Amino acid sequence: MELIEQRTKKIMEECRKRAADAGLEVQGETLEYIITNRDMIELSSKIMIPTLYDYWVHDVEVIKDKWIYDAYPSNPYETVINTRPAISFYNDNNPDWLNVMIFYHVLAHIDFFQNNVFFRKTWDDDFCGQALADKRLLNSIREEMGAEKRWVDYVIEFARGIDNLVGYYSELEEADKVARQDFFGTFSEKSSFYFGEFLKQRHDEKTVEMKFYYDEIGRYSQCVKQFGEKHGEAIFFDDYIFRSKFPEFSSVFEKSKKKQRKKTKDILQYLIEYSELIGKEQNNWMKDVLGTIRKTSLYFQPQIRTKIGNEGWASLWHERLFLADERIKGHEVDYARVNSGVLVDPRIGFNPYSVGMHLYEFIGELARKGKLSYGFQLVKDSEARRKYDEKKGEGYARKVLFGARKNFDDFMLINFLPDDDFQDFVNKYKLFVAGTRFNPDKWVIEIYIKSRSGKAYREMLNRYLYHPPYVIIDEEKAKPNGLYLNHVFEGRTLVTKYIEPVLRGLEFLWGRGNTVQLETTEFEMEKKDSDLRAWLYGRNQDVEPEFEKVRVLYTVSDKRFARIVL
Amino acid sequence: MDKGKFVTKSDIIGMRRLAEDELAKRNGIYVPAYSPSPLVSLESFEDLLKKDEQREKDGFPKKIKIGRILAGPGKVIAVPYVEEEKLIHGEFEPKEPSDDGNGEEGEGGGEGESVAGSGEGEVGDVIAEKSPEGEGEGDDSQAGDEPGEHGIEAEAYKIGKELSEKFQLPNLKDRGKKVPTDQYIYDLTDRHRGSGQLLDKKETLKSIVKTNIALGRLDMDHIDTTKLVVGPNDKVYRVLSREKVWKSQAVVFFLRDYSGSMYGEPTKAVVTQHLMIYAWLLVQYEKLVIPRFIVHDTEAKEITVNKYYRASVNGGTFIYSAFKLVNEIVQNEGLDRDYNIYVFYGSDGEDFDDGRQTIPEIKKILGYTNRMGVCVVKYGDRESEFEKYVKKGNVLDNRELFRMHAMDISGGVTDEKNIEAIKALITQD
After folding, report:
1. Which residues in chain B touch residue A164, judged by CB atoms under 8 angstroms apart?
2. How far is A498 from chain B (nearest CA, A)?
3. Separation of alpha carbons A137 and B351, rounded Å
4. Which A residues 326-355 touch B at CB under 8 Å?
5. How far is the CA of B230 from the CAs of B209, B211, B215, in angstroms?
6. B103 and A499 in contact by Cβ < 8 A?
7. Which chain B residue has its CA at the smallest distance from A532's CA?
8. How close B107 comes to chain A (CA, Å)?
9. With bands split at pLDDT 50, 70 and 90, how would you rate the model's confidence at A64?
């Protein structure tokens, strides 16, 4: 692995200038490395981070379940890491002009990383450096433990069992709160609790009327106006009518503060804080290990959730910039060949690069024609919709486009358009949903066009998006010293065969002797088994099996694993 | 024959899932089941297995699984792999049981997977066809795509030894028919009078005594050895003789049901078991084992070892077709004369016959085989058609010749379950 040579670097710098002219914002330095194919393959098990912590499973073939998204584009030509400074890898077989195209692609990626708000928490990090420090830390722990070093790997393994459940959104929420505070000025905890939770709760319980709420707000502003910020609040809460109406306020507030302090963002953090085993002094190293795994997982979260947007954005810009670059003269055909390989809309199948790009293009076009307005929504006639063009202009379109890049993750990108507009999108790019069915006459499985409906296509896209199960810790249901996890059902069940190993790992991490439980939803057959078999195996084809949803509780205690239906 | 009549819903589900998987692999955002690395493992096989054993001692269940593929007669590719267990969403969503609803948890059917596409066409147009027959890939997690690149090639014989030791597989008590081979051994077994390499003293003495008795020189009451005469033909020697070596050999027929309902885990289980049995037999017969592979749906055909692993699921189920083919082959090639014959079969047991054609074929096989073992792979413990009519057909009484084992794979296929099945099929009690 070596840095690219000066000549190529100069070409890249030129690219960067043009990209900046087009509006892409890439801050700071960038590093480019040339690597071989073999390096690529070796790195891929470490998700392209060369300094990722060592874990023996990385070297064995790892079977991943279908639904786990690859965190990185599978484009073999390039790979870029979201870190400061941004690092990108280039295949050593690429010719110069190809590297120019790839560099535009990379720049667009970096622009996305650095400006999309979902990456907010990664903006200041030199991830590679941190990963290296973590890796060394873990290795030094292994050295210290000597013969017992396999326990480090056990802890890594069990922690990884739940590292897809990290509190990515909780972290963002916290960052938001801090940002919000700067926004709205200092609105103290006490007041925000009073107006945000206390009164709201009583309003829901119908003990307080809306009018009273507004009156209180009025009274607050008055106090602040009269006595200034600092004293105004004190006087507001000192008012004797208030105190007689809500004598319990201060104690309720104190209790809520205590509860807030306890709230942890995810299971890993909970383990670090409260696990009996990890709390023991000789096991303090486990905190480092769990912390590393959690940090690493959090780092990749935004990438997994913005894959379509990220790739679409990069494809969009590399196309625009590359074609505008006169240095490609003579290589247009080569470019076309390479580009089509990556950006083709497959007859059957889904290409996130192209769909992402089309979505951005489409949004830009909507903006340009003024179709992103309420007025347009009211137009239902398809001819009128097609011809509608308010000519809002290029500047507006760009503003919208860059705004989308800044604020959208994949889910929002796919879903923000209203149904009618999305149908236009699907029609424009001739997308459809395909299905399979068995043709007994021809003895083949046919793939046919199932639907051209925008709704159906969107629903299918949504099913492909990454979404880990929503699991929360329920302290009330837990046994004494136990850990109780609640998988809140959102429409999909868990993979059953993995539940036992994950829970066993958690039992170890939580401390043997304490109960670890997971409550989840499963489907069981309502009617007796014979009906299902009859339906499946041909005798009685009409009876459809029916399933009922049941809540199921898995328990691991003292190494015994049990499942009961609630 | 109208193949369509003998296809069950679960067969169709299996065939559809196969087609969808292949589509997804080629076109969609399918993430491959494993990330290939040029190094199978930095540590050797043995170290990995030792690590696994250590896990058990530390109180954790084993983690390393080994996928083994038979790549040719005697050659096996073994790939160690690991599944990362996490709490993740599964595929089972019985929202619309109208499409399908293979009622098992986790690995179940759920709604047929929708695939995306683009281009021209009206709703309802067929844009592609996938024939279930032909070069399907075997299975996802069996590392079937490019085994040559990642696996460790090993001799099946060695694997057989490992398995026999590790799982205490039984040894055959009597290896039955022996056949003369091309090998010869030389041993001092023949006797020759007058000259030779080694004097056989006992025989010589016997001969001398006989001669002397005939000559009347021997007095029974007073035996005087100094007065005995040694005739020229009395000396008996042992000489080297050239003998052919007789060894026992085996032909083993591996049959499997490849109807649509066998898609996925059932096929994985059967194929793994058959590989293990083959390896074990190699040890028992000192490598003189000829494997033959047959797959069947409503018809049976013999195929090569590579295709046995990769043959994708096809149509309906007529179990007797497989047994009939075995009988035909044995008869046409006269195999039962010289070889010890074994027949192993794996299926999910759902058959369209009620036994009247299958049982006679089974009885025919039992007429010449050393052992016939059938493993019925199913979800749950409800009796399948095959099991029912086998019980009625009075075949189970003959435990020395016929074994049947039902394997429940509701919780997944594990090495332990496979070994349990194999042991049930091969032990001699």
Report:
1. 86-88
2. 5
3. 60
4. 345-352
5. 9, 8, 11
6. no
7. B103
8. 8
9. very low
Question: Looking at residue B373, what is its pLDDT?
Answer: 92
Paired tokens of B337: 């004369």
Q: Which of B64, B92, B118, B410 to mutate to test the interface with A (most CBs of A within 10 A)?
A: B118
What residues of chain A lie within 8 A of the CB of B24, using their CB? 349
Query: Which pLDDT value is given to residue A536?
Result: 64
Owner of token pair 């499985």: A445
- Band (pLDDT 50/70/90 cuts) for residue B372 is very high
Residue for token pair 């007429």:
B367
Q: What's the pLDDT score for residue B34?
A: 42
The answer for A 428-467 residues in CB contact with B (under 8 A) is 429-452, 456-457, 460-461, 463-464, 467
Tokens of A233: 């609040």
- A491 in contact with B at a CB cutoff of 8 Å? yes
- CA dist A78 → A48, A351, A358, A473 (Å): 11, 17, 21, 40
Angle at alpha carbon of residue B91, lines to B87 and B93, rounded to 5°: 115
Interchain contact, A545 vs B103, CB within 8 Å: yes
Question: Tens digits of per-residue pLDDT, A69-117?
Answer: 333 334 555 678 888 888 888 877 778 778 778 888 889 989 999 999 8
| Span A309-353, pLDDT tens digits | 888 898 888 888 888 887 777 787 887 777 777 777 777 777 777
Cβ-Cβ contacts under 8 Å, B143 against chain A: 61
Nearest residue on chain A to B42, alpha-carbon basis: A59
Residue B328 pLDDT > 90: yes
pLDDT score at A379: 79
Tell me, what amino acid is at B382?
A: R
Statement: residue A211 has pLDDT above 80: yes
Beta bridge partners of B68: B78
The answer to whether the CB atoms of B38 and A537 lie below 8 A apart is: no
* Between B302 and B313, residue with greater pLDDT: B302
Query: What gap in Å lies between CA A402 and CA B130, rounded to an integer?
Result: 43
What pLDDT is stored for residue A22 in this prediction? 87
The CA distance from A511 to A155, in Å, is: 12
Nearest CA in chain B to A452: B123
Residue A524: count of CB within 10 angstroms of its CB: 12
Closest-CA residue of B relative to A460 is B114
E strands, A21-159, in order: 30-35, 61-63, 78-81, 86-91
What is residue A282's predicted lDDT score, i.e. its pLDDT? 87
Cα(A416)–Cα(B80) distance, rounded to whole angstroms? 45
Note whether B132 contacts A61, CB cutoff 8 Å: no
Judged by CB atoms closer than 8 Å, whether chains meet at B82 and A523 is answered as no
DSSP-based three-state secondary structure for A168: helix
Report, as an integer, the average pLDDT of A550-562: 88
For residue A535, the model assigns a pLDDT of 60
Q: Which residues of A touch B412 (CB under 8 A)?
A: 497
Residues pairing with A198 in the sheet: none
What 3-state class would DSSP assign to B191? strand
* pLDDT tens figures, A133-151: 888 998 899 899 888 888 8
CB < 8 Å to B29, chain A: 350-352, 464
Task: Decide: B425 and B403 in contact? Cβ < 8 Å.
Answer: yes
Q: Is the pLDDT of residue B343 over 90?
A: yes
Question: Residue B105: its pLDDT value, please?
Answer: 31
Q: CA dist A456 to A361, A453, A460, B114, Å?
A: 21, 5, 6, 10
Q: pLDDT class for B325, splitting at 50, 70, 90?
A: very high
CB B2 within 8 A of CB A424: no
HEC profile of A177-235: HHHHHHHHCCCCHHHHHHHHHHHHHHHHCCCCCHHHHHHHHHHHHHHHHHHHHHHHHHH
Q: Does the distance separating the beta carbons of A352 and B131 come in below 8 Å?
A: no
